[in-house]
Amino acid sequence: GIQHNMRHLLIPLWNAYAFFVSYANIDGWDPTTTTARTGANLLDRWILSSLESLIQNVTAAMDNYDLQHAVRPFVRFIEDLTNWYIRRSRRRFCKSQNDEDKAQAYATLYYVLLQFSKIAAPFLPFVSDSIYRNLRTSTMPVSVHLCDYPASDDTRRDTTLEKQMETVMAVVELGRQLRAAH
Questions:
Q1: Strand, helix or coil at 69?
Q2: d(C-alpha 29, C-alpha 36), whole Å
Q3: pTM of the model
Q4: How far is CA 31 from CA 74, 83, 119, 130, 152, in A?
């Protein structure tokens, strides 16, 4: 049910948040220095597009008073964020050869976590507020529950890229299944 799905994503969500905070603190990254944008990095573009898809799907389900369908996209998004975006971007947070790419990785993950805390606030009020309060800047409301619920931004959607990533994920999963079987 709904509670099971929300519990299923708590640990991966907290791990993604802890990963970001750890690396950002080590590097002294400041959220006011860079903003997330759909730049050259395909992973950034994909996760930002997936975030907009999440906002659209959750909003549509909530507008229809369908909480079961409102919760399902969260689990998929957190899996994509942790198992695909962070895992494949990890080197970007460590290396210093390309400071602009590193800054974009930080800005993207920061934006995603901040927006996610707003989207998830009705479902995970305490965890969302804890994440939000630690990530917010002084110009933002003091609580996630004082923020406007995010509205989807179609200019950040790249449905072609989302479909391409789905294909890549399916191929990788089939490869894992074949390896496990043999």
A1: helix
A2: 14
A3: 0.88
A4: 24, 24, 20, 17, 22
Residues constituting the chain: 182
Q: In this structure, what token pair is assigned to residue 131?
A: 């994440």
DSSP string, 112-173: HHHHHHHHHTTTSHHHHHHHHHHH--TTS-SSGGGSPPPPP-GGG--HHHHHHHHHHHHHHH
- Give buried/exposed letters for 18-52 (b at 16+ CB in 10 A, else e): ebbbebbeeeebebeebebebeeeebbbbbbbbbb
Place of tokens 């860079």: 34
pLDDT single digits (tens) 155-174: 878 888 888 888 787 888 78
